[in-house]
């Protein structure tokens, strides 16, 4: 999925914003869940993006860890960019290794898409609005007002992560997929 998004996402206007066919997504999700072979290259890239966001939303406790939600959200209120990056790196160290590996690939994809935002209309802000709710959520639900404020803060965090991913994850993030 990520390889396809890395290849086609940067040249696709509205990637992660537009949804794939709900019927196709449901059928493919059922096939994937049953372990059947699925050739996503034959599907719309919007279906792949929708399936990927669904996959992220189904990670128990979120990929960034709901238990660390307050710490993630508070990072954006702390100091200058250097301090934010250091605090983010400390939080990343608290995540399971599998989450960190996946995050590197996710932000490698988002970085590639952002680099061609003039073509695809998906700058870091737009990407964050679309994908942030799939990356982190609070451990318990709260009032709509609090959730709305939290969503804005999480989007701000994801925008910062996207804009600074090379400094946070290392420059090699731009070559994780090799020469596709």
TrEMBL record:
BP GO terms, sorted: regulation of Rho protein signal transduction; signal transduction
One Pfam family in the UniProt entry? RhoGAP
The superkingdom listed in its UniProt entry is Eukaryota
Keywords per UniProt: GTPase activation, Phosphoprotein
| The keyword Phosphoprotein appears for this protein | yes
Pinpoint the Rho-GAP domain residues.
1-169
Which terms in the Gene Ontology molecular function aspect does this entry carry? GTPase activator activity
Note the PROSITE patterns from the entry. Answer: RHOGAP (PS50238)
PANTHER family from the UniProt entry: RHO GTPASE-ACTIVATING PROTEIN 20 (PTHR23179:SF28), T-CELL ACTIVATION RHO GTPASE ACTIVATING PROTEIN-RELATED (PTHR23179)
User: What protein am I looking at?
Assistant: RHG20 protein
Q: Could you tell me which species this protein originates from?
A: Oceanodroma tethys (Wedge-rumped storm-petrel)
Q: What is the lineage of its organism?
A: Eukaryota, Metazoa, Chordata, Craniata, Vertebrata
Gene that this polypeptide is encoded by: Arhgap20_0
């Amino acid at each position: 999925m990520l390889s396809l998004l890395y290849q086609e996402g940067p040249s696709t206007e509205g990637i992660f914003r537009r949804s794939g066919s709900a019927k196709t997504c449901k059928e493919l999700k059922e096939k994937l869940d049953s372990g059947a072979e699925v050739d996503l290259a034959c599907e719309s890239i919007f279906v792949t993006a929708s399936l990927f966001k669904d996959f992220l939303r189904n990670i128990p406790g979120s990929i960034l860890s709901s238990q660390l939600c307050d710490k993630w959200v508070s990072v954006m209120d702390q100091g200058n960019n250097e301090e934010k990056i250091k605090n983010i790196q400390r939080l990343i160290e608290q995540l399971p290794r599998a989450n960190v590996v996946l995050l590197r690939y996710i932000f490698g994809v988002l970085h590639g898409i952002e680099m061609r935002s003039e073509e695809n209309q998906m700058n870091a802000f737009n990407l964050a609005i679309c994908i942030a709710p799939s990356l982190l959520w609070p451990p318990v639900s709260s009032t709509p007002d609090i959730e709305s404020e939290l969503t804005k803060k999480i989007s701000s965090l994801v925008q910062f992560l996207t804009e600074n991913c090379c400094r946070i994850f290392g420059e090699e993030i731009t070559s994780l997929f090799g020469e596709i």
